[in-house]
Amino acid sequence: MKLTTSTNRYNKNKITKVMNTTFTGLAISTLIFTNPSFAQENEDDVEVIQVSGIRGSLEKATEVKRSLSVVADVISAEDIGKFPDQNLAESLQRVSGVQISRNRGEGSDVTVRGLSPDFTRVQFNGRTLPSATGGRSFDFTILPSDFVSALEVYKTPSADMEEGALSATVNVRTPRPLSSAETSLVTSIKAVREDNSGETSPDISALYNFVNDDKTFGITLGAHYDSRSVESHIYEAFGLEPGSEGSRGPTPTLDYNLDGDTDDSFRFNHATNFSQLNEERERTTLLATMQFRPSADTDIWLETMYSEFDIVGALPLNSFRWTNVLGSVVDSDIVTDSLGSEGLIQRLEIAGVDNRNNARTTDSNDKLTSFSFGAKHTINENWEIEAELSHAKSENVISTLSLEVIGRANAYYDFSNDYGGVPEVGYSAGYDPLDGSSFRSIGVNGNLDRPTEDTSTDFRIDVDHSVDWGMGIYSLEFGAKYTAREKFNGFRSIGVSAEVLAGLLGETYDPTIEGGSFDASAYMTAYNPSGFFDGYGGSASYPSQWLSADVGKLLDTVSLSTLVSNGTLTEGGASEINVKENVLAAYAKVNFEGMDDRLTGNFGIRIVSTDQESSGNIPDFSTIRFDQGGAQTFVDTSESSVSRTYTEILPSLNIKYDLTDDVLLRFGAARVMSRPSLTVLSPATTINVNVRTINSSNPNVDPFLADQLDFSVEWYFEDGGMFSVAPFVKFIDSFVVASTNEEQVTYSDLDGSNSVTSTFTRFLPDNGKGSDLTGIEFNWQQPLDILVEGLGFTANYTMVDADKVQASEDGPLLTLDGLSETSYNLVAYYENDVFGARFAYNYRDGFVNNGTNYFGDGSFTDEYSQLDFSASYNVTENVSIDFEALNITDEVLIQLNSLGINRGLEDVGKRFTIGVRAKF
């Protein structure tokens, strides 16, 4: 085993010691501070012990871990430009208590200790990263891992840490030039193979670090490009719609149970979709960091980062909207359900069902920019002052055009044999699904360059003063931070009617069919995905070949600019929001030690004042119009604005005590807060006639507050071996719940005719009852050199339990959204001087997406596990060949409703990467 040690003068008030442990494919560091303000600020003033070889790494890591008071677990790069996983979220899931959500097979956001991603604050080198999404969670797919030196997960806070994390703070750290004592160039070239699409795409990066001879000036430059050709096979349902036989669709006399009357009420599948999603994903990232150290007491830095993420794709559907029928019931099978309705239609065969085979395209562009300028200066070794100004912006522009087509199929669904699997779906009565003349076009609609922006500007100042006040107090820290953040969700859509579109295409328009339509056969394409749902092991039969609209064929005939100039462009409206937050925070923290250094810790307080201004649009309910063909709702709106201010006081305490030479105890207590989603804080209201809902936001929702206690026992039973148990509890004051009320709403067709009055459900978010969340984490690390040199494993297990909450006013008690009761990781590794390999298995229990959803039957993600493999071969000291296989058992993501009936399934397939990395 190779041991390399480099020692620099370090500041005891900041960091006691840093331990980096590395092995092939995975490097987990234990970074332990008395001030966990983020290691980036101090990485040049620490003792670094770099150990190549897992046995030596674990021995040194355990020695450091048990001597310190506050722990922050960090996943670090094995070397410059070499992170354990290509996706940062997928690395984070190896940490106990951390779970992830996936988007097209990639980790997208993180859940910590059972709380949803909105409760996790993500920062970039200690600064908040905005995200152009509807919530506060950050999508990790926009950032590559090549430039990341460490991911830091803080589960307990101290007063100097920024508020906003009810569950945890994740800091993405990149290296500064002077953290390395040498000039270097690291390059990598990889090929990424997608199993479903059969396509191979490039992944290329270069990272250059320059340091001058006297080590006072350095520059780091990085460039990364990668692409993916994604193909996902998707089944999607929308829940069990309650309906009365006498009020369903344009034919109000459907007799579902064939008993001769139309007086019965049932629940049935609202719609079922089969689709093949194809996306081309491209990501480009540029990094530039300059660092200047004119003296040992002064450090100045300038950091910039730019990342751009493009998605171009299409989702051709084979869709059956069982809620829109122009025909009659052929056969049905109805059973009693547990949702309070008279019966569940588990099998339905029907004539004239809406076969809505649209093909919605996606053209999305995400840009993330980050800039910071800071300096740190030490005065007489007793005062350290640090200040930083930073700005970050995330912006997204997206277009999602759909060529709306409709056929009238004779079809059936049947999920009686397997509620949790894909239902059996097929055609009957001689219907030919591949006959293009069966489909009529009813127009084009969708988002057109719809903008979303999230910006954050911060200024902070931190002071660290060494003191000798007695009672073991050796350091006082205090500081302040001002943050200005603004979130804007715009709305911009295009609609082209069937009549206008027919004229542009030279097709014959018939106003009597489907409310006005034309023959769509010339703009349809047959789809027959290879290996459709290979990862699904069920026995049901379903269409694996279908006709779907093709927007490309449409645009080959008529340009997008022509569609825009002849269609209706809608901007603003009820979906547009703008929320501004100005936050001023101040803190003070005291660091102490005592009892012959067996006791160490800190205590402090943080005061946070928030000024909030929210604006949005309120609909005029007398102007509601519904396009049945496009399933779109239109309404006139007027603007509204609300302002408010609130202040919170957040104390914290962290203690570590060495019980014996081999056993230590840790304790933490804190009051924490997290703000509601920025979209929740808008005064806007939207209405959806298709599912008969009204969704209102509420700018007066208060922040989430919780008191948390953490306790851990760590036993170091041998060199390099450790077993720890860490129970925790969070007393959460309240969650945002949706009050529900039924209202009578009148709407009409687009031209104002055919007025209809129906019952709608209004959802209004507000602060509701809280929950006590308890959990426990187990960690075990065990080298097995006694059996085989270089062999070992790590394992962790997390169990979380929480009181159920009411997702709606006076509604039933439901499990917290996003809460997985159990999760665990198993990693087995082997490494020698030339070759290394790793198997990593991750499991996450099922969790709630939405306890009620549109129709009250809820949406739940089923349990999921994934096995990954990675290996590395060192050709020379500076050149290696790396291989990675993700999801090697071809697992699929499944969603269910409260009856256990499948609401969705996604098969993303396996992914393989092979490449060469060189360091000069």
UniProtKB/TrEMBL annotation:
It is found in: Cell outer membrane. Residues 65-166 form the TonB-dependent receptor plug domain. Keywords: Cell outer membrane, Membrane, Signal, TonB box. It comes from the Bacteria. Residues 1-39 form the signal peptide. GO terms for cellular component: cell outer membrane. Residues 411-888 form the TonB-dependent receptor-like beta-barrel domain. Belongs to the TonB-dependent receptor family. This is TonB-dependent receptor. It comes from Paraglaciecola arctica BSs20135. The lineage of its organism: Bacteria, Pseudomonadati, Pseudomonadota, Gammaproteobacteria, Alteromonadales.
